[in-house]
Amino acid sequence: MNIFQYYLCFKGIVFRESLRFFYQRERFFSALVRPLVWLAIFAVGFRSFLGISRPLGQPENWPYPISLVPYELYIAAGLIAMIQLFNGMQSSLSMVYDREMGSMRTLLVSPFPRSFLLISKLVAGVSVSILQVFAFLMIALFWDVQPPTFGYLTVIPALFLSGMMLGALGMFLSSAIKQLENFAGVMNFVIFPMFFASSALYPLWKIRESSEILFYFCSYNPFTHAVELIRFSLYGQLNEKSLVFVSIYLLIFLILAIYGYDPSKGVILKKKV
Amino acid sequence: MNSSALTIKTLNHNFGSLKALDNIDITLNEGDYSILLGLNGAGKTTLFSLITRLYDNQTGLIEIFSHNLKKNPTKALANIGVVFQQPTVDLDLTVEQNLQYHASLHGMRKKFALNNALIELKRQNMENILKKKVRELSGGQKRRVEIVRALMHNPKLLLLDEPTVGVDIESRKLIVKHVKSLCKEKQLAVLWATHLIDEVDQNGKLIVLHRGKVLANDHVKNILRKTKTKNVSNAFDYYTKD
Q1: What is the mean pLDDT of residues A208-234?
Q2: Cβ A19–B93 below 8 Å, yes or no?
Q3: Which of A69, A121, B169, B205 has the fewest Cβ atoms nearer than 10 Å?
Q4: What ipTM describes this predicted complex?
Q5: Tens-digit pLDDT profile for residues B165-195
Q6: Cβ A8–B108 below 8 Å, yes or no?
Q7: Where are the domains of chain A?
Q8: According to the 3-state scheme, what is the secondary structure of B93-128?
Q9: Do the Cβ atoms of B104 and A108 come within 8 Å?
């Protein structure tokens, strides 16, 4: 196989995901409804008494150009990461479904290396999630969530990295989930703890005031770093610590996912595909 | 002498404590039309999963046109076309989009791949379904699309895992006839797994798989002679009767 054939294969996988996305528009809209409910109801409801102010002596935790940000502006980054988290888990769910229904086999019997096929599938899923994020950001303008214009550009690499990390986590989970029915467990044990024990809804320094243990848990939560990477990049800044964490988690989840789908080593060996 | 399309030697596979395949030896040459006959649960799908590298073989050897599947999966898999037991076409996409996706998974240019597919579709009088969504096709048409898809990249070994399940009698006959003609014309090696005795070709080869073991592997005529039976059904009973 030469490089051009690799390109054709990658293009084909991305094209198929885009087509599926196009044909399943309800999936696109339902993915938008979830963060919009948080933004339009939850954040607006809490707005009057939950503005977030700049923490004293912690400039590294504050990307905003103003000292007091309205709550809906604060949670926007968390909701963007939420779109990517659900997109990653949705892809994971569809991979379990594809595996049960058989269509996953078509991908897995391709002569290209399995790691290449899985990474291509991840990139395809992330591209879809970036489109969803931009649709959300457009609608969020109605609630005055308006990062600087260059922020729409600088956020793209952050979205790509965080999307890849959350997608790789989903892919690893899909290799470990035996049946579709077990997916509810993922919701309870992965999505909800990741989302609530993060800086998506409240800043970490506020959590620390209430519970030191929870603070440490949140500090190492991959989702926290996805949120912070996105939050800073929306304002044209780089949160280096989060970049390092997201990159390390991406590498770990990717290795686990590739291991999970390896025909000789992974968990897939222990069950019928 | 024909070269070996598929060589399986001392292959075993377990699911936990369950022995799914026990010391399997199979050889298939170019142009061979072999039926893998076994009851449900005999190990046919597990064997196919190993040949297509959905699982790695824990023991033994699998070679496809002399390429070791474990050591050189890219070259080995490039020679295989597969029709799985479960339908694997995307119902929401058109036939053309499904074929295009498959072509890309084999690193083929769209135009070249679709030309190949069109030849196959024409052979089966199905060229008008290219723009149709797979959901709109009948069960038999879907299966035939899967066969067309499996042949797009010009494989030399075609694996079919119960391809006629859920298909009406007429479509079944068409599929069997079509695959046999492919085997003859293209010197394609075919391994066709089934539990339906009437799909066995009297002039072809028969492999009887029962509880993970190969009990017979020979030309049908030789098997009938050895077992002193009149038909495949009786020969199958002869081997599998406890």
Answers
A1: 93
A2: yes
A3: B169
A4: 0.81
A5: 877 788 788 888 888 888 888 889 999 999 8
A6: yes
A7: 3-270
A8: CEHHHHHHHHHHHCCCCHHHHHHHHHHHHHHCCCHH
A9: no
